[in-house]
Specification:
The chain is of the alpha/beta class. It is built from five helices and five strands; from the N terminus they run E-H-E-H-E-H-E-H-E-H. It has one domain: Rhodanese-like domain (Oxidized Rhodanese, domain 1, 3-Layer(aba) Sandwich), CATH 3.40.250. Helix content is 38%, strand content 16%. A five-stranded parallel β-sheet has the order 1-5-4-2-3. Strand 2, helix 2 and strand 3 form a beta-alpha-beta unit. The longest helix is centred in the C-terminal third of the chain and has 12 residues. It starts with a strand and ends in an 8-residue tail after the last helix.
Length: 106
């Protein structure tokens, strides 16, 4: 099972515990428009073959554009035995509103 957290909640949790990983499952063209620092970028279509690039022993938060794709990946990672999985509710769109309004919206 995974938890839904807001972008602001994720930032606060990551500041309190630097072991949090951020997994961006958007397409490369989307990341070119609006990218986040310190994230691992693996498009949704590649997650089955590349999920081992993420440390399963550390908490991971998954982000996409609005939260749908990331929820699917969060469900998958939780089923793969990841220790703690969160879905960033509202995705990069909510991040641009709550955390960094300099991010382009698309």
């Amino acid at each position: 099972m995974y938890e839904d957290i807001s972008p602001a909640e994720f930032v606060a949790q990551r500041e309190a515990d630097e072991s949090w990983q951020l997994l961006d499952v958007r397409e490369p063209w989307e990341i070119d428009i609006a990218s986040l620092p310190q994230c691992v970028a693996i498009p949704l279509a590649e997650i089955l073959s590349r999920h081992r690039e993420i440390n399963a022993d550390k908490p991971v938060a998954v982000i996409c554009h609005s939260g749908g794709r990331s929820a699917k990946v969060a469900t998958f990672l939780a089923g793969q035995g990841f220790s703690r999985v969160a879905n960033i509710a509202g995705g990069i769109d909510a991040w641009a509103e709550e955390v960094d309004n300099s991010l382009p919206r698309y």
